[in-house]
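quick one, three chains, predict together pls
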Amino acid sequence: MKNILLTLVLFLLAGCGAAEPQAVRLRLMTHDSFSVSEAVLAQFTAETGIQVEVFPAGDGGAVLNQAILAKNDPLADVLFGVDNTFLSRALENDIFLPYESPLLAQIPDALQLDPQHRALPVDYGDVCLNYDKTWFAARGLQPPQTLDDLLKPAYKGLTAVQNPATSTPGLAFLLATVATYGEDGYEAFWRDLRANDVLITSGWEEAYYGHFTAASDGDRPIVVSYASSPAAEVIFAAEPLSEAPTASVLGDGACFRQIEFVGILRGTKHEAAAQQLVDFMLSKPFQEDIPLQMFVFPANETAVLPPAFVQHSAIPANPATLDPALIAANRERWIAAWTAVMLR
Amino acid sequence: MIRLRFPAKLLFLLPVAFLGFFYLYPLAAILRLSLAPEGAVAWQPLRELARTPYYWRVLWFTTWQAAVSTLLVLLLALPTAYVFARYRFRGQQALRTLSTLPFVLPTVVVANAFTALLGPNGLVNGWLVGWFDLAAPPIRLHHTIWMILLAHIFYNYSVALRIISAFWQNLGDELAQAAQLLGASPRRAFCAVTWPLLRPAVLAAALLVFIFCFTSFGVVLILGGPRFATLEVEIYRQAVQVFDLPVAAALSLLQIGFTLVLLLVYVRAQARMNRPLALRAARVTAKPIKTAVDRLLVGATLALLGLLLGLPLGALLLRSVTGPDGLTLLFYRELFINRRGSLFFVPPGTAVFNSVAYALATMLLAVVLGLLAALLLTQKGKKLTIGNRQWSIVNWLDPLFMLPLATSAVTLGFGFIIALNRPPLNLRSSVLLVPIAHTLVALPFVMRSVLPALRRIRPSLREAAAVLGANPRQAWWHVDWPLIRRALLVGAVFAFTVSMGEFGATLFIARPQTPTMPVAIFRFLGQPGALNYGQALAMSSLLMLVCAVGFAAIERFRAGDEGEF
Amino acid sequence: MLLELKSLSKRYAPATTAVAGVSLAIDAGEIVCLLGPSGCGKTTLLRLIAGLEQPDSGTVWFAGRQVTAVPPHQREFGMMFQDFALFPHKNVAANVAFGLQMHGWERPRIAARVAEMLALVELEELAQRDIAQLSGGEQQRVALARALAPGPRLLMLDEPLGALDRALRERLMLDLRRILQQVGVTAVYVTHDQMEAFAIADRVVVMNGGRIEQVAVPQALYARPATPFVARFLGFHNLLQGVVVELGLVETAVGRFTIPEANAPKGTAVTLLIPPDAAQITNYPLPGTHCQPAIVTALSFRGRYTQVWLRLNGVPLMFEQPTYPSWRIGQEVWLGLQLERILPL
């Protein structure tokens, strides 16, 4: 009996000793628009021995809701893609472990919305109005500079926006108007915009590729898109362009800043490896890869932007922002009010 | 009726188990979590929901737009189905394929094809303004109910066409002719004889189309615009944007319950209508085009198909080869280049491979399970007595198999997350989940295609085979199988299509990085730039091509089938 | 004895009994007809023999072996269905070959047997024809060829002529009898038509309400129906309700008759059958016969004879008279019954 036990213990010990330290495989759950260079991710695996499996799981809201539903038994180790409009939902449901990455030092405080560092900012992008330069030039019309300009008779029937109830940029643009005109004024702005024959679509794709004069057969030369869209128009042109065919309206308060966060999912079995991945996502190689992969701006200030970005897209000096807690508390009410004004 | 031994009966449980594990269980899990998080049902949010007139308006709109869409689809598809069933003409097979292609196209792409055709600056308005010297484009369908109806016809036309024509072509003309000899005018003969005989197939098609339109999401959201909302749209909004699970669950229940009632009515009506009929080989019922009436009928059908389906699809194809300087293959070439070295770059070959692999897996699963389910449903089963009515178990099972079609993708997707997390069903993040989800949607198509064919096989044929020495397996193989093969093929084509078009079901499933063609299209459409849009259209055209090749390959199985049933 | 049924019973729904305790024995080479109105259980009985239905109780024996639980495909019986049940997706030759394939015959043997069978039913030229292109008579013959091809130990025919027109039926009846005798097969034949049964059967089994009423060769059946039901089903009209008043004497509405077989106790109700040809009708009473006056109520010309309907003491009677008489409706005539031909049932 003793012998058997001894053999068993020895066997177990031998078993443990013989096993190689197993290569960690991390799961990164994210939205369908996530992208990264193959080489950059390979570099991370080469340096750390950590394999990363990317799990796309729908749009931003769907990804977060799935993570919340699975919080007792997480689907992944790291989640990327929660933005400031949904941040409070993530934090309230307590799905992230705090991690104070040393790289946070290189990220501006304005982007760090969670003081407990459960959600760490990775990138930001500004939702703003884009206009078709050729269209305005051909008609000798001055492109709009501010939100107020949209209400002028000269711009009647020129603008396309997205429904904030079904579209992320649509919601961001609504928040920009709330931030700019305040609780008392935003409804009036939208009422006037409706009177000025604004077109409302359900999603960005339809607005941009279905109605924007610069990108479709449509008849709307102004559309809600991103500040980086003009750069994308150059990079993804069908023939080489020296100048972007579109430009953004960057006036004060005309843009809303969307910040995307990464977090380590509570319940992960690989917390240390997950921290390494988060560090990597905040580090220069990944951050410098961001602009051309996802067409947003890196959060890390030391990251160098690609030339096309520097040349063709601009960062608004004073974008509109709102406290995530305020957004969480009022999002549905604002959307309902918007719906009442615009669609009823 | 076939007598089966015990192991064979177990086989029948497969589809039931599949439905139980991958549909009922996850659905029950998410409904329980949403409606009764503390164990007892929280009635308050439900009561509030019932008191909100907005949701009743949504239900009303959902219902009537689906009913009108179904009616229009049937009205257009019936004459075409007749022509397809009765005439043989060149290019018929190609047309049949063409009619199914819309089914796989992403809504955004279709919306843009419609805009290119009918939009304010579109082709048709351009012509009209030019010809009639108008000041403004006369056709303004954008964001109107007409656009929703048009798109529903565009998407669902082939469902009705395929199901009805497949049935019709084995229905001889003798009975209608008998009625005419008894003094009925051709019109009355149709109403009194042909129509009742055809009704099972028409009803089956109508049911599928109605459910599709009832749960319409993309079409209503994108083509209808923000002013229109179906239950499905509202469920998505509540579940994803607002994250109000009780409301989403209650609306899901409403959607499922409404459909269930409809299905129960359907199944009972169906049982009354189905009679074994003398089947005729399609070869016998088909006729060549001879008279002027024949030519007119076939010509009108071709024109309708061309106008309704050919034009938007053609516009799409044309767009995909039109660059800034005229015709170009630039967008197709660009598909093969990974300019940004992205991890998510999908070489077209890989996307095609992934899509086809998923589609074949779905087809195999759906055909096997759908056939078993159909066989199960044609067994004379035990009856349950409820009140003073007898309900056969079959009457309940049939609607149950249809329900996944009527269940919002997001509800089921969330259900998967909380239900399929434990072995042996730890499938939440498995590659298998995608074909499983597709199969849930594809199963009803296979069932609805096979059931009418199976039900109209006269029992005496099987008995004759048995008396002649065929064991049940042989009797099935020599009698049932050849008689349902064609219907099964129709189901297989739909299963393949459902998967290729990547229906909603997968949208809310976390899945390993195996990008399919629709996923690739969505990635291109997600970013600005002419090149991205061009590539999205190129990939869409490729998707149509792959589907067309797939259909042709599936239909080849029919070769060597003596009777063409 | 080739086939033996022992107390077979079958009910489909709790309230209805399709077959109730039927026992029957059939010899090798015999052609037996199951005759009866629709719903009498004859088709169910046939399906029980074929194994297409399982009896609730009772057993089926074939060639000394119990076959009750043997599935149909292992019984090596043949069957012709009412709707012929020809496979619509196979041509004539393939239909005939089906049973042979199921029995694992070699190809050349199948071809030879198919040719032989098609020759038997005189359909050689139609071998490659589609089923949909055949006439009713042709379909019937293909079905017969198909059923006979594997050389069944027992052939069952379920109203095989029911779907055909009268002229065709008359001709096919003879063909069928010829072919069945030529092949020498034992056959069970279901029909509701007595003429068909008489023309084809060696023995007729009359069924009613799931039970056997009478089993007899056709001539005996016609001469001596055993029950009022059989008599009525065979087309006899003159059934008289009577009571035994003393041994050998029966009292009816038409009069008292001496019936030697009526040896039941006094007061027993009996039914008497007067065959339609067991009377003479005259304008005046014929001396030396049992004559009674009656009123002519209807006349029906039937070719070689005429049906004369009479009313006697309020009882309607029908007799077949060979010559065309000069009677009118309403006329009083004299009815002379051949008392020795009156049958107790």
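The two ends of chain C are 29 Å apart (CA to CA).
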